[in-house]
Write a structure and sequence with these properties.
This protein is an alpha/beta fold. 43% of the residues lie in helices and 17% in strands. 38% of the residues are buried. The mean pLDDT is 96.
């Protein structure tokens, strides 16, 4: 699974980013607008919803469960300093997707009994799209944490995030994560749509091999 996370860019608007990745076959978009007002976010989210609905693409919003509910988006991603997943679930109900951020195995243990659908684990490496970055994990960090989850019988799907490029995908997927979240590597590509298609094709090939 490839999840695209929006980020302000000099080359494209947020809506242009979403159009480009959806045209490339991306089936999951996270609308992340850290420095925007709720009013600005709602305006973009309404347009993004139209684009994603036409393409049968999941659209979740970063930080704002109330906007997810108001606009009937697919769900919300919550950082460690946002509303708790428990409060968000009470607000949204069972039909909404809720993702939560983790940087360590201890974070994952704290999330294991909460009603969440996936964990965004990172960062893989340094990324300029995130302020106050937690210590990078690298591939060894992912392997270690995924093994710790296996040993502890924690089965929540994990999505790797943080400065990930096309060449990182095979080793990350081999570590046991269920998907990849990307931002800059698609936004800054020469052709965002083509790079999206390329990443999805690689992920599909990896998943197919695992099923054989």
């Amino acid at each position: 699974m490839l999840q695209f996370i929006t980020h302000p860019s000099d080359s494209m608007t947020i809506i242009d980013e979403i159009r480009s990745v959806v045209a490339g076959g991306c089936g999951w978009v996270q609308l992340r607008m850290k420095d925007a007002s709720p009013e600005e976010i709602i305006a973009v989210a309404k347009e993004a919803k139209k684009i994603c609905k036409e393409a049968d693409c999941i659209l979740i919003i970063d930080d704002y469960p109330d906007i997810a509910k108001e606009l009937e988006l697919d769900g919300v991603h919550l950082g460690k300093n946002d509303m708790s997943p428990t409060e968000a679930r009470e607000l949204l109900g069972e039909e909404y997707i809720i993702g939560a951020t983790a940087n360590t195995f201890d974070d994952i243990e704290a999330l294991r009994h909460l009603d969440i659908d996936y964990i965004g684990l990172g960062p893989y490496r340094f990324t300029a799209t995130k302020q106050r970055l937690s210590p990078v994990l690298g591939i060894d960090g992912y392997r270690r944490i995924m093994q710790q989850m296996k040993d502890a019988s924690i089965n929540i799907p994990v999505v790797a995030i943080g400065g990930i490029t096309y060449d990182d995908i095979p080793s990350l997927m081999d570590s046991g994560v269920r998907g990849i979240a990307v931002s800059g590597s698609l936004i800054n590509a020469d052709n965002t749509t083509a790079e999206t298609q390329k990443m999805i094709t690689l992920l599909e090939e990896i998943i197919q091999k695992k099923l054989q």
